[in-house]
Amino acid sequence: MESSSPTRWRYAWRLLRHAVDSACAAMRNLWTSVRRQARSIRYLRAMEWNRAASRRTEERLHRIIAERSRPHAEEARAHERQSLTSEELKLLAHIRYAAAAANRNNVTRAAAYLRVYNQHPELHWALLAHTVSRNGGWSMTDLQGEWLPRIMSPAQRLWSFRMLERSNALIFHDAFPQLLLYDASRREGRSLFHLLPHLGVSGFMVPFWDSFWVQPDSPLLTTALIINEQNVIEGSVVQNEQFREQVIAKWDFRLHGWMQMNQVVIPLGVPAVQEPAVPLVGLTLENFSDLDERIAFGRKLYALLFHVPDIYGRALSFMRGVPHTGSRADYWPHAFTTQPSAQDHAKLPVAHRAYSPRLADAWPDEPLPPVGASDWFVDDRMLKHLQPTRPPLQADMTLPHDRLWKQTASLAGFIHPGRTQHS
Question: Which InterPro entries does UniProt cross-reference here (predicted)?
């Protein structure tokens, strides 16, 4: 115990220094944002927005809400669900099978999203979902990597993985069949979106897909999908009693917000071990529990990825050039490695390459439990998010991301100076 005391205080000093550095950096970033606002406002315009299409879609959504309040509305919808042709039933079965096969784990989901985007680049949400899925996979493997096992108990890490996996899988379960139905509509040359309710998709999405088929408007459809998918996980994950008790209410989950650990990063380019760090852009989600904040976060991330000059092309080169494994070595091989170290981590410098396993080496596949058939869309509260979004003025994450891992290493060293990754 005595021998570990100097080591612990060394890590405590590092942690304090990193915290001060982060606070100073936050102030510098705020000042930089103010200065950039004056210089860059003409370049960071809000995304193009079809106000007429948005207004028509909102009017239809209000009619849907009104119709659902009428007597016998549910019986009428049940009758519609029964009147399907054999070809439609066959297509629905194929879509369900294909979606379930691709929903094995985070890696298969990310690959499926990218395939769809490569086939249909007008589906911006598919690339956004691929980006977020990569980050979700990195967060999953962090739980079995070098630092978090020294901060969190095995039970805490397991529950955190389950919450990440459930969120990831539920969104895919809901959204990917929509993308496949669009692909089928393109192949047949006619709209098949009347089949969306048969796939368990919220009535909220039907007007947006109908509008997109007639007049393709990627920002409007993408915004609708962001709203829809965050509402999908709100009831089943964020408000789930077990996840709230085992994860969201725990101190280590709150620590993620305090330490700015909920970063979603977008690598700009293909990395190499011997080269300098690939630059990163991205955003930090402060409060995962807040539905409106998650939706606003998704909209800003979309604007950053698709509507800031020089980001889209460099980000796409990474996504197409580097297969997703779940390891952070995918984008920063100079800082992370998929090979675990057998050495005592308390004696290693903070700058050494940290262990970041592949998903296949970190967690087994976890089947998605049966998903209940319920529609979150019961009122017009979410329509306030149907508006254009301006990209964030400050999105450089290269230095903040580096500081994050130095802080995490120092915290791990302070809590358990001599503990190795899976002890």
Answer: DUF2515 (IPR019658)
